[in-house]
Design goal:
The longest helix is centred in the middle third of the chain and has 16 residues. The protein is built from 10 helices and 8 strands. By secondary structure, it is α/β, with parallel strands linked by helices. Strands 1-2-4-3-5-6-7-8 form an 8-stranded mixed sheet, with helices on both faces. Helix content is 41%, strand content 18%. Helix 4 packs antiparallel against helix 7 and helix 5 crosses helix 6. It has one domain: Alpha/Beta hydrolase fold, catalytic domain (Rossmann fold, 3-Layer(aba) Sandwich), CATH 3.40.50.1820.
């Protein structure tokens, strides 16, 4: 199995990444309750063909927190720093859930730096999953227990159970709970608000690059119908549905996820 190392990207905030392999760069972006360890079933496998890196987004894991509110576009600026750190003019971007929205945002800002996109269990705009009057309630439900003095570990199991598929194992559930328990409370609160209020919908019809959509058949947060809608608007795309997978499809069904994504990446 390929070994990986943890590196730190200078700047403010400093970012932590795990990296392995050599060749074209593949960047793995976790979701709102994730961290770079969520991609450890992918790193050693992808590293046989590519240089692959998984980050902790700002305010997550071993990456630094930051002062002031979060602008969702800050993630794209951080991603540009990551590519610069690895000397990559462009990269293949794989994003899950919030990571998929970051990937779309980055492409629309810097299309010349993206070779291909893999968008997993995600959506093009918040309006596809939450109406305006539902967003405040979504934010309240996620933030209220933490603002009342709770910690991420107090909500981790319930949240993880709410988006897992029917085949999730005890070990996989433990990894999801550990990931959410490790969230930086203040940064997570800022991320919930910034992500939910980011009302920009990606102009998918203008995406001039290959796109793979990966959705879980049993995902309660981003159902397959969202993936079908995205595919209908993307000029050069295909949709793969992983049977009985929930919202964290790469962690719940790693063998099928790796096979499908690597097949796509190798063809680019």
């Amino acid at each position: 199995m390929t070994e990986f190392e943890t590196v730190f990207i200078a700047g403010s905030p400093r970012l932590a990444c795990d990296v392995a392999g050599s060749g074209e760069l593949v960047v793995l972006l976790h979701g709102i309750g994730g961290q770079r360890q969520n991609w450890h079933d992918q790193l050693p496998v992808f590293a046989d063909d590519f240089q692959v890196t998984a980050w902790d987004a700002r305010g997550y894991g071993d990456s630094e927190d930051y002062e002031g509110p979060l602008d969702f576009a800050d993630f794209s600026a951080d991603l540009a720093r990551l590519l610069d750190h690895f000397g990559a003019a462009r990269a293949h971007i794989v994003g899950l859930s919030m990571g998929g929205r970051i990937a779309q945002d980055f492409y629309e800002r810097e299309p010349q730096r993206v070779a291909s996109l893999v968008l997993c269990n995600t959506f093009a705009g918040i309006a596809e999953v939450l109406a305006p009057d539902q967003r405040a309630e979504f934010i309240r439900l996620r933030q209220e227990p933490l603002l009342a003095g709770g910690e991420p570990r107090d909500i981790a199991k319930g949240v993880a159970q709410s988006f897992a598929g029917p085949d999730v194992t005890e070990q996989q559930m433990a990894r999801m709970v550990a990931s959410m328990s490790a969230l930086h409370k203040e940064s997570y609160l800022k991320t919930i608000e910034a992500t939910t209020n980011y009302d920009r919908t990606s102009e998918l019809a203008s995406f001039a690059l290959p796109v793979l959509l990966v959705f879980g058949e049993s995902d309660p947060l981003t159902p397959v119908t969202i993936g079908e809608g995205m595919q209908s608007r993307l000029p050069d795309s295909r949709l793969h549905v992983i049977p009985r997978a929930g919202h964290i499809s790469n962690l719940e069904k790693p063998e099928e996820f790796n096979r499908v994504v690597l097949e796509f990446l190798r063809a680019q």
